[in-house]
Predict the structure.
Amino acid sequence: MKYLFFDIECSDGKHICSFGYVLTDINFSVIEKKDILINPEAIFHTGAWSKAKREKSEKDRGITLAYPKEEFVVSPKFEHYYQVIKELLTDKGTLVVGFACDNDARFINWACDRYKLPFINYTLFDMQRAYREYKEMPNQPALEKALEDLSVDISSHIPHRSDEDAEVTMLVAKGLCERLNITLQELCQKYPSCEGIVADGKIEFKHVDGSVCDGGRYSGSNNLRRNYKIFQTHMRKTKPKNGANLPLKGEKVCFSTVFEDKHFSEMLLLIDIVANYGGKCVTRASEASIYVTMDSPKTCRRQRIIEERIRKNARIKKVDMDEFLTIVGTSYDALLESGEQFRKNHIGKILE
């Protein structure tokens, strides 16, 4: 078994100008590393995308490439490297891996269609999805966040060079495997939602119930993607009740992400419960005056900020879930029983 880590650069956000890869053995020892330069036969957006955007933002300066434009222009076209790329991606003894690689697969499909070449059918594994599953993140993680978390040193890395970026993906995969003490094959088995099938010009990732990457529809469980937007909308619209003796009057309540991420329906109900007792639900740990904890081996993403605020003597109270639910006159079992029914009864109004 070999691992192929690949990355693609485009001259204009669509047309391929380089295909870089790193081929390793199962121990992540590099067998081959190469950057294939390709004439994209397209415009190079290496300057500002437009005058209007240049005037609007200093950050919007177009695409940055690792080589002068002239080196790409004199290189062969995609059709010249088609067979080489196909053999790399379809080798039966090779695991193909990228980071946010649905985009790269899409670029290859566009090139095949443009040059009237057969689509390349293969299986790939997305490290962005795997890392997201590992961290249980509601949104797609940036590469920089994964590198920082896994303590990956890329100080000698040459940015925007496809083979170098492919090697960075390899280092992320290696770092995550070392942290979990498993092989890359085992990592892919552990997080099946990171497996994508590219066939006949289409890309489809495996759908896994309960996966944080499978949150495109709202359900009664995970607080992800569209669910999270609904959750935020309901939180924004719901106003605290006024009353002299309300136990949460003026409080901003923040729940552990260990609970919040997995209990979409219950969180919608809790927003209402907190408001009825005079408080307001928040998702920023820096704003919370009450932090509701959960007993779990998993770590809440807000915990570090909460602990830091406590060390600085900020006004914040930590309570566990059972204690908090007692304050609002309910129990954990009752919350779980009522959450789904609340969602069904109120989702239409929330979406208005």
